[in-house]
Write a structure and sequence with these properties.
Blueprint lengths: L4 H21 L6 H8 L2 E5 L8 E2 L5 E2 L1 H14 L5 E5 L2 H10 L4 E3 L6 H6 L2 E3 L4 E3 L1 E6 L14 E5 L3 H12 L5 E5 L2 H9 L5 E5 H10 L6 E3 L7 E3 L2 E3 L3 H20 L6 H4 L5 H7 L15 H9 L2 H8 L29
Parallel strand pairs: 1-4, 1-5, 9-10, 9-11
Antiparallel strand pairs: 2-3, 6-14, 7-13, 8-11, 8-12
Helix pairs in contact: 3-9, 3-12, 9-12
Organism: Lichenibacterium ramalinae
Pfam families: SBP_bac_3
Protein name: Amino acid ABC transporter substrate-binding protein
Length: about 350
């Protein structure tokens, strides 16, 4: 049927008007921030088998650097670091859990790579730990370097970057080896300990933590070679820029706090500092919380809950822990390390 021009215009106007009304009335997908606030709890995906990063604390919660970063986000968003529900995830299930919305943020020693950043529908928000892949062998095995692992069986975690790195390293050097994969770090470590594998490979820090869990730690040693770069950080779903900013800037706030001398113990008192950079960080001036959809004291809440990045590191991985791992590249840029964050301004 054909309509005169006036009728066609009227019908077009009606259709456009209906579309606009429909668009206005159609409920928008809730942001992660809105979901977390409505729920009253942050759901955080975590590796449950890695001392120093994520381990059960015996009281129904978790301890470690990853666990503290989860608490920092909860404090920034909900004003209470205790409002976290930890979800233990294996390497093969971690990204699916994030993609599906089962967790709000993933703190799982996930390496930042191009394929993960572009092909999984997730975004790494920053780097909270600089690591590299290494190999552990049985002491007395006469394996002094990676070239001595020709024909060896190597235990590793399934679905981790360790698989690809090990394959690339040995293939390009013409060294044959047998990869033996497991769902999580504990299974791989147990297989190594039982003699199922000649070597165990993972991030160097993970190996240091795993060694402490072995029945006979002195019977294992880590080879000196590091075969990869492993920048690790929190991950969120793509498409929610506001939530990405919150997780990213919570990490940045902890790093900036260390540079500015703001600690867990003095954070609330420092809110009255005369230094403008500290006052902006802690919300005394600037009104910067609005840009994140949070209260102006969001960073103060996070720092008062877990401390600055240096405190979190030392407590879980450094001098105050059983691991005694040197800061190395994870030291502040002011002390020759790579930890550097944009200013809160």
């Amino acid at each position: 049927m054909r309509f005169p021009g006036r009728c066609r215009a009227a019908l077009l106007g009606f259709a456009l008007g209906s579309a606009l009304v429909g668009a206005a009335e159609w409920p928008a997908a809730a942001s992660t921030l809105d979901t977390v606030k409505a729920r009253g709890v942050l759901v955080c995906g975590i590796n449950p088998n890695l001392p120093g990063f994520g381990m059960p604390d015996g009281q129904g919660g978790f301890k470690g650097l990853n666990a503290d970063l989860c608490r920092a986000v909860a404090a920034a968003v909900l004003g209470d670091a205790a409002k976290v529900r930890f979800m233990a995830l294996t390497a093969p299930t971690r990204f699916t859990a994030l993609q599906s919305g089962a967790v709000d943020v993933l703190m799982h020693n996930s390496t930042w790579t191009l394929s993960r950043d572009t092909g999984l529908g997730i975004s790494l928000t920053g780097i909270d730990f600089y690591d590299g892949q290494a190999f552990m062998v049985h002491r007395g095995s006469r394996v002094a370097s990676l070239s001595d692992l020709a024909g060896a069986s190597v235990c590793m975690q399934q679905g981790s970057t360790a698989e690809l790195n090990a394959s690339d390293y040995f293939r390009t050097r013409g060294i044959a080896f047998e990869p033996v994969t497991f769902a999580d770090d504990d299974q791989a470590a147990q297989a190594f300990q039982s003699g199922r594998c000649d070597a165990l490979t993972s991030d160097a820090t993970a190996l240091a933590a795993t060694r402490l869990k072995l029945a006979r730690p002195d019977e294992a040693e880590t080879l000196p070679e590091i075969i990869s770069k492993e920048p690790i950080g929190p991950a969120v779903r793509k498409g929610d820029d506001g939530w990405f900013d919150i997780v990213r800037w919570t990490l940045f706030a902890l790093i900036d706090a260390e540079d500015l001398g703001v600690t867990r113990a003095n954070a609330r008192g420092q809110a009255a500092s005369k230094l403008p950079e500290i006052r902006r960080l802690l919300g005394t001036e600037g009104g910067l919380g609005k840009g994140l959809g949070l209260a102006d004291d969001w960073a103060l809440s996070a720092i008062a809950a877990v401390g600055n990045y240096g405190e979190v590191f030392d407590r879980n991985l450094g001098a105050g822990s059983a691991l005694k791992i040197p800061r190395g590249p994870n030291a502040s840029w002011l002390k020759g390390g790579l930890m550097y964050a944009p200013p809160v301004r």
